[in-house]
Design brief:
heterodimer, A: about 300 residues, alpha/beta, Rossmann fold, Alpha-Beta Plaits, 4-stranded antiparallel β-sheet, 10 helices, about 25% strand, elongated, B: about 525 residues, alpha+beta, Jelly Rolls, two-stranded antiparallel ribbon, 20 strands, about 35% helix, binds adenosine-5'-triphosphate, binds magnesium ion
């Protein structure tokens, strides 16, 4: 089976709330795809539609070219973690994995393998009701790995993990992707995905805002701004605006320039003998890039909220 | 963009199968200790309540104030307990033959009937019987076939206690006599009737396997007790039976075949005592004058309804069912409550199959628990009842098996109904209450004498509680007057028909559950 997830034009609403508004993207094997967006952007809903739990009104979601519902032994194809708290509290973690394993024709041996893999160890024989959120996440990961699937879908797997756990999870995701699996990981915090995801699908208001590699996204945002410190700000503004840049004063001697690259600014000011003592290309973080991208979505949200209030 | 080889799992991909789902659901069930304990408790409650009821039930027989061993109850050819008490004027008949008689009168007395219960009145009870009988021997419970006139059910042909065929309706009198004929040909006995002794109509035939070469043939009269049911306080009822006696006048007695002729043997078959009426007014027996025989008798030839039944030991079934309902509803609603249903549907996206697997596991587990409980309860409950002096109406091993297996099936089907309700409501409280309201409450209402009898019977026809009929071991008979009401253990539907009603509701609920499960988002 080709390990890809293809989401095409999904639309869905819950009552008056539009949850998905033409959601389309593709997840390719071999790297971690981050699925990010603010709260309520439709990440979880998209995942539920991909997994055949929710029905979309329009569009399709295919795994390896097939709808999830048509998969036989689906956990052999797709491993998913949607809600780590979805456990029967009085059942031990091992028994939870055991029934899942039995449903796919797998045995206790495989269960013990994934328990070790997820680092649950002897805690697996305890009742899941007593688990911390972090342990539940690990149990959810173990369940997703049970069928050794080529496609992995995780909804907010970093939730509740301590710093150590976050590092573990990142390495773990990278390893899974490195094995050639398609890994889709959602989060509403970009920094969690910063060093893990190679590809990003940024969503807001039920549709994709950006579908790009991390490198491209960073470049697109940081390439447009340069911080300039000069003793002759007025002159500098005149020269740079003349060259077509947009300039904003940040402080007495600090300007922010967009529309020109740092090298061009240095050349221009040098040619006109405008004094300056610092030129810094503004290095945006992924977080900033993301904030910028999703600001509209958030503003829209606030505006509709007010409209609704009126 | 990097190109990577797609991932290939090292795990063996086996065939997808329903058996896996069953195994997964079973693993789910057995790994929650509370559910296993709940199921075991349900079984235990059935056994304990049953045996407790049995040990609290005592009976004894006495003559005056002296306790004596109870007389053995005769058993008919079909294995059922029978009443076999009548006045018999008989001759042996070797081989084939036939007997014919004319009945010109059937009268009688009923002692102290309502409303005032203070006098003995002339009257014939509906199932007073007088006519011809060919019987294996005068031993109580032996095989027979009989042609008779009755108090108010016309001419009948009956055989071996449980079988009854209607002939011409209407009463008998000197102006409108009835001619009866009964012939034997091998094992085959055939009954005829006539209004004039020339035009004969066949009423029915009876095949009496193993009838000996020589049988007893003759005239008989019997008259069952007069049953009245009085409404008691608190909605209960009191059944009273009063002594009655019937007297019939026969003539034109014609016995064909190898019979000795001469004097007729006279026997009060099965009669154990005499009432004051018989002592001082009219004893049972025969008065002959010139070919006319006036025969008086009392008793009945019919299945016996008086005694304990094996299902009386199953008093814990209702409590057990409530426990089962709670456990089974939790089995599915816990998944909704925790969101675990999504995990289940990820493992088995074909939702109908998933619910079917759950239903099958639920049904099987409850069936086994119910079977074990019913088997132990009936087996030991019977022993305890007997050792306490109770008489248990005997049933065939097949009937006992049906009761035990039927109770297990009642549990299993109810469990599946509760499961379906759990899937429909997705909330444990709503599902448990609904399950109890549709199956336990109607049964309690119908059997606790709070409702009029008619309403009680309709409840047990129309609601899922109809399924309780499966535990009735002794049927009611149209030709035996009885108080056939739910509170006495008589269900309005036949055992399997009642269970079928429950199954119908369960199938309906399951379809609704699957329909909703498929349609709704998980
Ligand atoms: N079962 C539901 N019933 C009603 N509305 C729903 C339901 N599920 C989601 N929604 C709505 O659909 C929209 C998308 O929700 P979704 O949970 O998919 O967002 P999300 O991106 O996963 O958000 P978060 O980051 O908070 O998890 C939201 O407005 C949400 O309120
Ligand atoms: Mg979400």
């Amino acid at each position: 089976m080709q390990a890809t997830i293809e989401v095409n034009g999904l639309r869905k609403h819950f009552g008056p709330t539009v949850a998905l508004d033409g959601m389309s993207f593709t997840v390719k094997p071999g790297h971690v795809t981050g699925f990010v967006g603010p709260n309520g952007a439709g990440k979880s809903t998209t995942m539920r539609v991909i997994l055949g739990l929710d029905a979309a009104e329009e569009g399709s979601a295919l795994i390896g070219g097939r709808p999830y519902k048509s998969l036989r032994n689906p956990l052999r194809h797709v491993g998913a973690l949607l809600d780590a708290a979805a456990l029967q509290p009085s059942r031990t973690a091992r028994n939870h994995l055991l029934w899942l394993a039995h449903s796919q024709g797998l045995g206790a041996k495989r269960v013990d393998e994934v328990i070790a893999r997820a680092g649950l160890g002897s805690a697996a024989r305890r009742k899941a009701g007593g688990y911390s959120l972090g342990m539940r996440q690990r149990l959810g990961i173990a369940a997703a790995l049970l069928g050794d699937p080529p496609v992995i879908i995780l909804d907010e797997p970093f939730n509740g993990l301590d710093p150590e756990g976050i590092v573990w999870m990142r390495e773990f995701l990278a390893e899974l992707a490195g094995q050639g699996r398609a890994v889709l990981v959602s989060s509403h915090l970009m920094r969690e995905l910063q060093d893990t995801a190679a590809h990003l699908v940024v969503v807001g208001r039920g549709k994709v805002i950006a579908d790009t590699s991390v490198a491209e996204l960073l470049a697109a945002v940081s390439g447009s701004r340069v911080t300039l410190r000069t003793t002759a700000p007025l002159e500098a503004v005149r020269v740079l605006e003349h060259a077509g840049a947009t300039v904003a004063a940040l402080g007495q001697d600090t300007l922010t320039v967009s529309g020109l690259a740092a090298e061009e600014i240095v050349a221009l000011l040098g040619a006109r003998a405008v004094p300056f003592f610092e030129v810094a290309a503004h290095r945006a973080t992924l977080e900033e890039a993301y904030m910028e991208l999703t600001r509209d979505a958030a503003e829209f949200r606030a505006a509709t909220g007010q409209e609704a209030a009126r | 963009m990097t190109t990577t080889l797609p991932y290939h799992s090292g795990l063996r991909a086996g065939r997808d199968g329903f058996a896996r789902l069953l195994r997964a659901e079973w693993t789910k069930f057995r790994t929650v200790r509370g559910w296993v304990i709940g199921m075991a408790a349900a079984a235990l409650v059935i056994v304990l309540l049953g045996l407790l009821t049995a040990s609290g039930s005592h009976a004894s027989c006495s003559v005056g104030s002296v306790e004596v061993a109870c007389a053995a109850v005769p058993v008919g050819p079909g294995g059922e307990a029978v009443e076999d008490q009548f006045y018999f004027m008989h001759q042996p008949l070797a081989g084939d033959g036939s007997i014919t008689v004319r009945v010109t009168s059937l009268t009688g007395v009923i002692t102290y009937p309502p409303p005032n219960h203070n006098e003995i009145v002339p009257g014939v009870v509906p199932w007073a019987k007088a006519g011809l009988i060919i019987k294996d021997s005068t031993r109580q419970g032996s095989a027979y076939a009989a042609m008779m006139v009755t108090g108010s059910h016309g001419v009948r042909m009956q055989h071996n206690f449980t079988e009854d065929t209607a002939g011409r309706p209407g009463g008998v009198s000197a102006a409108s006599p009835r001619w009866l004929r009964l012939t034997r040909s091998g094992d085959m006995l055939t009954g005829y009737e006539s209004a004039d002794g020339t035009q004969w109509t066949k009423v029915g035939t009876a095949h009496l396997a193993g009838l000996p070469a020589t049988v007893q043939v003759g005239l008989f009269v019997t008259s069952p007790g007069d049953l009245t049911v009085k409404q008691a306080d608190l909605g209960g009822s009191i059944e009273q039976v009063r002594f009655t006696q019937a007297t019939a006048v026969f003539d034109h007695v014609d016995l064909q075949g190898n019979a000795p002729g001469g004097a007729w043997g006279r026997d009060a078959v099965g009669v154990t005592g005499t009432t004051d009426w018989e002592r001082y007014h009219r004893p049972n027996g025969v008065q002959e004058s010139g070919g006319t025989f006036t025969v008086a008798g009392t008793g009945d030839i019919a299945p016996r309804m008086d005694g304990q039944t094996i299902e009386r030991t199953l008093t814990g079934v209702l409590t057990g069912l409530i426990l089962v309902i709670v456990v089974v509803v939790m089995f599915i609603t816990a998944e909704y409550r925790r969101g675990l249903i999504r995990t289940t549907l990820l493992a088995s996206p074909r939702r109908g199959r998933m619910l079917a697997a759950k239903a099958l596991v639920t049904g099987t587990v409850t069936f086994i628990a119910g079977l074990a409980a019913a088997m132990v309860t009936v087996t030991f409950g019977k022993q305890i009842l007997r050792s306490n002096g109770n008489y248990i109406l005997p049933v065939t091993p097949l009937t006992e098996l049906r009761v035990v297996v039927g109770v297990a099936a009642l549990f299993a089907v109810t469990a599946v109904l509760a499961l379906a309700l759990g899937a429909v409501f997705r909330r444990s409280v709503a599902a448990v209450i609904t399950a109890i309201v549709v199956i336990v409450v109607p049964h309690v209402l119908a059997t606790a004498s709070v409702l009029p009898e008619g309403a009680a019977q309709w409840l047990l026809r129309l609601t899922p509680a109809a399924g309780f009929a499966i535990q009735q071991s002794i049927p009611g008979y149209a030709h035996v007057i009885g108080h056939y009401v739910p509170q006495a253990g008589y269900y309005p539907l036949a055992p399997w028909a009642g269970l079928a009603v429950l199954c119908g509701y369960t199938a309906l609920a399951l379809c609704l559950a699957i329909f909703q499960l498929r349609r709704r988002d998980a």
